[in-house]
Amino acid sequence: MPELLTRTELNPCKAEPQKLSIEKSAAGRRGLRLPASGRPAGEHLPAEQLRKTAPKLPELSEFDVVRHYTNLSRLNFSLDTHFYPLGSCTMKYNPKINEELCALPGFAAAHPAAPDSAAQGTLEAMHNLEKLLCEICGLSAFTLQPSAGAHGEWCGILLARAYHAKRGDAARTEIVVADSSHGTNPASAALGGFNVITVKSGPDGRVDVAELKKHIGPRTALVMLTIPGTVGLFETEICKISAAAHAVGALLYMDGANFNALIGLAKPGDFGVDIMHLNMHKTFSTPHGGGGPGAGAVGVTKALEPFLPAPRVALENGVYRTKSDYPDSIGRLRAFFGNTGVLLRAYCWLRQHSPETLRLVAENAILNANYAMAGLKDLFPAQYGGWCMHECVLSTDPATTGGVRTLDVAKRLLDYGFHAPTVYFPLIVHEALMIEPTETESRESIDLFVAAMRAIHAEALENPELLKKAPHTRPVKRLDEVGAARQPDIRW
Ligand SMILES: *Cc1c(COP(=O)(O)O)cnc(C)c1O
After folding, report:
1. Residues 125 and 234 in one domain
2. 335 has pLDDT over 80
3. What's the CATH code of the domain at 200?
4. Which residue minimizes the CA distance to atom 5 of ligand 1?
């Protein structure tokens, strides 16, 4: 296991230290020794599957391994080390106490197949969480089963299908989405077996109600909107939209993955949403990114409740029970009860808040995004005027910045010590830079980010080549991202 030594004091005469490396593995070196098992090796395994020669693994002390992984982890940008304004992803601070609470042995060591009588604490937490989510969203019931936002969307689509089927309305084969909807919306609709109809946004980046009306009718099962939209805007005509959807017999679905923009401020049930999902791993305190576990809780109105996935938790005579006898249920969506670790963190987070502080979450998310936008939009124009919600979408203009594109700005930000915002999304904005500071950042860290962006803009005017080759200070230079995804080199 060679390790590069790059400390400048090794070679103080040159700015760039020489690259020294040494093989650290030594035969017989060990981090720990297991006690002898007292059984012959490979006792129960077929002879042809046993190794003839030992694997060629590095042989290292525990200290070497600890150092190796600690150093590797420091090469990354992470939420605990850097400002991380990745739009639509809500990379916010998750209080560490929630990690401790969900790891309490009574929760973490519970067997997933434990009988209800041995899991009363977990069931009570799930039951209470469902009630809190109903209250916050103005809906009648929630399922906590789906494992991610997209899984929640798919659940919602199956619910809509079951609802229309139960009414004997088989003609509803279409789902209408906005062109500013999150990419998972049309994908989930297609996966649910529906034809996807896309409505073009109006010039203000919002759904154009007149245009929407042209696309909905007796074939529409669901109008599916991301709220706020991926351009960071609230659908100010949402009451007209829900009235129009309901007038033709369709249901209204809200992708509420970015609910930190609305929590405590507005209840989707009040503006006519029939089904919605929340991303517990964005709004409700779970570190995410890198494909870790998530939860996409789905809420519904009374009319859709019978179709929710089973099992559900019910409180009967003071005892929590998992119940499966729901004849109209769409069935199970995953093994056991869901990602309870993520759900427990959400429950802990909610219990630490009051209605007033939840409202502050949304207000600060909105304030921070508008503050960042105000500091940048003279140099990085905003496509749509007015206020944004939890994120702002700006853009780079290569015509005025020596051909510098959004990708170059994003890469240069790494040199300044910031994770890049989301880039080239939403697709309807040219050279998009989608910035979501989140409610947990301080004014100082946003000021620093704005200062870095402004410095980068000045660099673009002076020396565009500097930006086109960025990053310069990171352990790896600009990567072939398509190549990295298609042919990943994951060996040491
Ligand atoms: C993140 C996100 C999703 C998808 O959530 P996953 O948990 O990644 O499946 C869907 N819609 C919106 C608006 C999102 O921001």
Report:
1. yes
2. yes
3. 3.40.640.10
4. 149
CA of 150 to the centre of ligand 1 (A): 6
Sheet containing 432-435: which strands, arranged edge to edge? Answer: 392-395, 432-435, 422-423
Q: Which is the closest atom of ligand 1 to the Cα of 152?
A: 9
* pLDDT one-digit tens code per residue, 142-155: 999 999 999 999 99
Whether residues 252 and 313 share a domain: the answer is: yes
pLDDT of residue 367: 98
Top-confidence residue, 51 or 141: 141
Residue 60 included in any domain: no
pLDDT at residue 263, as a whole number? 98
Q: What whole-number distance in Å separates Cα of residue 313 and Cα of residue 130?
A: 9
Ligand 1 centroid distance, CA of 294 (Å): 10
Question: Token pair for residue 199?
Answer: 């409505």
Q: Considering the domain boundaries, does residue 292 fall inside one? A: yes
What does the alpha-carbon distance between residue 1 and residue 68 come to, in Å, rounded to a whole number? 9
Residues 162 and 305 in one domain: yes
Q: Are residues 398 and 308 in the same domain?
A: no
Question: With 0-12 CB in 10 A as exposed, 13-18 as middle and 19+ as buried, what is 203?
Answer: exposed
Q: What's residue 20's pLDDT?
A: 84
Q: Are residues 336 and 421 in the same domain?
A: no
60's CB contacts (< 8 A; 6+ apart) are 1, 24, 25, 29, 31, 68
Structure confidence at residue 4 as a pLDDT band (50, 70, 90): very low
Going by pLDDT thresholds of 50, 70 and 90, the confidence category of residue 492 is low
We report the CATH number of the domain holding residue 398 as: 3.90.1150.10
State whether 277 and 409 are in the same domain. no
Structure confidence at residue 75 as a pLDDT band (50, 70, 90): confident
Same domain for 315 and 431, yes or no, is no
**Closest residue by Cα to residue 207 from 216, 196, 199:** 199
In the listed set 330, 351, 372, which residue is the last one of a domain according to the structure?
Answer: 351
Tell how many helices (H) and how many strands (E) occur in the chain: 15, 14
Q: Which atom of ligand 1 is nearest to the CA of 184?
A: 10
pLDDT at position 41 is 81
Q: How far apart are CA 251 and CA 420, in angstroms?
A: 37
- From the CA of 88, give the closest atom in ligand 1: 15
The count of domains in the chain is 2
Cα 279 to ligand 1 centre (Å): 7
Region 459-466 average pLDDT: 96
Enter the DSSP assignment of 34: P
> Which residues have any ligand 1 atom within 6 Å of their CB?
88, 148-150, 182, 184, 226, 255, 257-258, 279, 294, 296
**Mean pLDDT (the chain, rounded):** 93
**What is the structure's pLDDT at 13?**
56
Task: Please check whether residue 187 lies inside any domain of the structure.
Answer: yes
Structural domain for 138, as ranges: 97-351
Question: Is 447 inside any structural domain?
Answer: yes
**Residue closest by Cα to atom 3 of ligand 1:** 149
